[in-house]
Amino acid sequence: MKVAVIGANGQLGSDVVTAFRGNGDEVSALTHSDIELQDIESVSRCLKENRPQVVVNTAAMHHVENCEREPDKAFAANGLGTRNLAFVARDIGAIVMHVSTDYVFDGAKRSPYEESDTPNPLNVYGNTKLSGEYFVRSTWSRHFVLRTSALYGKSPCRAKGGLNFIELMLKLAKERDELRVVDSEIVSPTSTAELAQQMVVLSRSDCFGLYHATAEGCCSWYEFAREIFAITGAKVGLKVAGPNEFPAKVPRPQYSVLENRALKAHKLNIFKPWRDGVREYLSTSAHQ
Prior knowledge:
Elements: E1 2-6, H1 11-22, E2 26-30, H2 40-50, E3 54-57, H3 64-69, H4 71-92, E4 95-101, H5 124-139, E5 143-148, E6 151-152, H6 165-175, E7 178-181, E8 186-187, E9 190-191, H7 192-203, E10 209-212, E11 219-220, H8 221-232, E12 237-240, H9 261-265, H10 274-282
Parallel strand pairs: 1-2, 1-3, 3-4, 4-5, 5-10, 6-9, 7-12
Antiparallel strand pairs: 8-11
């Protein structure tokens, strides 16, 4: 199968390229220098040259504070850029696989969100990503929209300073005697490698639609850090941060756990419990 991966040099995109190539697919690894989603002529030219059967979009403006400061820029990237992609994919008959976020929800439910739950984003980032979802879903029927949560992977996330949460905690554990981490936000830490494998599985089906795609189970950021230190044996004091110790600059959902209801209904869910993903990530030679 011919697959085009947009954002191929990003934290998720690099693992998506690896997963599809490992499956024997012919992959075009596209970066910003190859395709500009906000320019429909660029999108059309690039995809018509490559003629992929599946287009995977991992590109986004996802720094939450920057999105809040520059809403027009965020909407152009996450909303209108995605609309351009959907239009061109429809023109060439390619399946669209688009990555969205748990931040489309406000967290008020306090139990795992299913695909049928009504979104209510709290910030610009969530709103622009939701608009991208709607553009894809209303433009072209052959789509997979995947909402995910708290990603970490081996490739750096440049928009967020390069270090994922695991690497940041390990770095700080070497530098400090004590760390304080918030216990108020509940997420499902999800490995980019596992999400990429889930994309490969979905791409082989014709069960188009909206999917939640995260590791099984959930934890707070504090519990996530505690698990990291337990696995690695890091010698650092870990404490729960005070309620106003790290005030959020932008409103965020306090609970954004997703239930992979649609994946399970189609018997396509491959995700393991989140702790298994963390152990697998930390078992690589770099963390021995």
